[in-house]
Amino acid sequence: MSRWPNAYFMAASLYILVGVNWGLYMSITHDFATAPAHAHLNLLGWVSMAIMGGFYALLGKETPAWLVKTNFVLMNIGVVGMITGLGLMFTGKAAIEQLAPFIAVSEIAIVSGFVSFAVAVFLSLRLRVATRRTLAPAA
Ligand code: HEM
């Protein structure tokens, strides 16, 4: 079995460790300025990566490795880049004009990651239908 689902769950578990501690920090300090970055880290890094890993472990086992890898690399570049950019923006450590190109590239990586995931989902369905037709006994 491919080890890629493990890679997705490992990344997701690291993101949620940062995410929940970030949330705890906001609760303790009563400084909620970075809440949108915390939310995106948890929803993209934890929820989305775990769903993708679950898909590749269960339904998408036949997905070509290059596509699973492309999906993984794009999502990680996007999550790390976008959350860093949003964090710097909401803490006022850098101006939005300086960060905009960086955040935009990260967002494009995330959108491309979701596009590669959608391709994997549809491709996997096609492969399953084709396999079932091949295995079906002739009437
Ligand atoms: C120990 C775990 C967590 C803690 C302590 C925590 C804490 C917080 C805090 C303090 C806020 C800001 C609330 C405010 O602005 O009034 C927040 C917002 C939010 N959190 Fe968390 N959180 C945790 C886990 C999660 C998880 C697992 C998710 C999603 C999977 C999540 C998604 C969100 C969302 C969507 C928002 C709203 C962001 C916004 O209004 O811009 N959080 N969280």
Question: In a few lines, what is going on in this structure?
Answer:
The protein has 139 residues and is mainly alpha-helical. It contains four helices and no strands.
Tags for this entry?
139 residues, binds protoporphyrin IX containing FE, mainly alpha, elongated
Tell me what you see in this structure.
- The chain is mainly alpha-helical.
- The protein has one domain (4-135).
- 83% of the residues lie in helices and 0% in strands.
- The protein has four helices and no strands.
- It has helices at residues 4-29, 35-58, 65-90, 96-135.
- Helix 2 (35-58) packs antiparallel against helix 3.
- The longest helix is centred in the last third of the chain and has 40 residues, at 96-135.
- The radius of gyration is 18 Å and the shape is elongated.
- The mean pLDDT is 94.
- It binds protoporphyrin IX containing FE.
- Protoporphyrin IX containing FE binds next to helix 1 and helix 2.
Could you spell the SSE succession in H and E letters?
A: HHHH
Instruction: Supply the number of helical segments.
Output: 4
Termini separation comes to: 34 Å
Overall pLDDT confidence: 94
Helical fraction: over 70%
Assembly status: single chain
Tertiary shape: elongated
Task: Identify every distinct bound molecule in the structure, by name, code or SMILES.
Answer: protoporphyrin IX containing FE
As a percent range, the share of strand residues is under 5%
Structural class of the helix and strand makeup? mainly alpha
Count of individual beta strands: 0
- Give the tally of structural domains: 1
Rg, Cα atoms, Å = 18 Å
Low-confidence stretches: none
| Main beta-sheet annotation | none
